[in-house]
Amino acid sequence: MVFPEGELDLSRCRHTIELLRADDLGRGRKLDFQEFINLPSDQTSDYLKNKLRNLISGVLILEDDGPYQMFNRHDITHLDRVNNMAHSFLDESQKQKQELITPLERNISTAIAYLHDIGNNIDRKKHGEISANLFFKIFSNYDSSDIAVRSILSGIKLHDEQVGVKLNDMDKVGGDSEYINVFPQPILAVIAADKLDIGRHRLSTALTESLPAAFEHIIEETPHTLVVIYAQNSQLIFTDDGKRLNWQIDFSTDISAEENSQTRKILEQFIWKDEDIYVPREWHANWKKNDIPYSASYLGKMRSLYCTRLALMFSSLYALLPQLETVQIKVADSKSYIETSIVSEYPRDTWQDILFMVWKKIHKDDYKLGMINLPNILKSGEKHYEQRKGYSI
């Protein structure tokens, strides 16, 4: 099994081998790929969750990204949500294109959904490529040139932002790109679902027992924590004609309604007053001085922190759903005394322009000096920006 170049933690490699052995894999024992890929589609998720239960649960042990050594939870809840959301996108694609999504494509989608994050057991920054390589450690009885195998491996690799944003547009998947001879629809569905899974259920398990720093520093210095801790719920709603997707994030500083005991235990460590959790000082100052609601500050910060993640999501959705004309992000704060709803639109023809301007603002100095490379997925936005200035690049 070949892993990406660069140093990897050998203890984590050994631990991953132990997890595979706990799942009765390794030393020549593997799952039969043909058996899996030909299962009825309603059986494949349970098959993988049962056969890889230790490998999947092992991801929770490793929390090693960011200044306080934590990243979003990649547990079975996340994988289930990604899988279910991806299949709902495939249903919508089938409806819009009037083309049947085959059982094979659905099984490919399920495989990508449950395998895409297992590489986190070894290394966070290279987890996409490692997850793809672990496929060969898990399965036997496959042909590497098989379109199903190629699709699964491509989907796993492309979900990683560092890889996915190298494409100018996700509609290149399966066509004019290195990712040819694949089924694009399950790949696009899982990538979009993965990027849309935001909520308190993803708070790092590193926060379960004790905080590695003062809670205000964790929220203000750890992007993933800031984005998910205020997202009490999120939901996706397509209009009947499929032209609009509404993504509503229910913003809340209140933890009184939290029913999950583990999540509540984490949230309690961030309480500032009563059952309200801390908000960044800048947000509070904006509300006090300029009457800017927390929900507006949250949306602006989330859009900045997750700029390339959102780009990958929008590009995947628009490539998958031909009738989709716009995606609306709505952040709703339902507290009675500051009830607000902040809305931003990302139409098919201009979402790259919008996110390019966000990216440009974030990297203003380095971009101006030519010291940073613009992700390919935003280059169309840069082109339109330059044309509006009166010249083309």
Structure write-up:
The chain has 393 residues and is of the alpha/beta class. The protein has 3 domains: 1-197, no CATH class; 200-348, no CATH class; 353-393, no CATH class. Helices cover 49% and strands 10% of the residues. The chain contains 19 helices and 8 strands. The strands form 3 sheets. A 4-stranded mixed sheet has the order 3-4-7-8. A two-stranded parallel ribbon has the order 1-2. The radius of gyration is 21 Å and the shape is globular. It starts with 9 loop residues before the first helix and ends in a 5-residue tail after the last helix. The relative contact order is 0.10. The mean pLDDT is 92.
Q: What's a concise summary of this model?
A:
With 393 residues, the protein is an alpha/beta fold.
What count of domains describes the coordinates? 3
Q: What is the gyration radius calculated from CA atoms? A: 21 Å
Average per-residue pLDDT, rounded, comes to 92
* Span between termini: 43 Å
Largest sheet: 4 strands, mixed
Low-confidence stretches: none
Query: Which class best fits the helix and strand makeup?
Result: alpha/beta
Number of extended strands:
8
Counting DSSP H or I runs of 4 or more residues, the number of helices is: 19
Query: What is the N-to-C order of secondary-structure elements (H for helix, E for strand)?
Result: HEHHHHHHEHHHHHEEHEEHHHEEHHH
How much helix, percentage-wise, in residues? Answer: 40-55%
Overall geometric form:
globular
Q: Approximately what portion of the residues adopt beta-strand conformation?
A: 5-15%
* Strands ordered across the widest β-sheet: 3-4-7-8
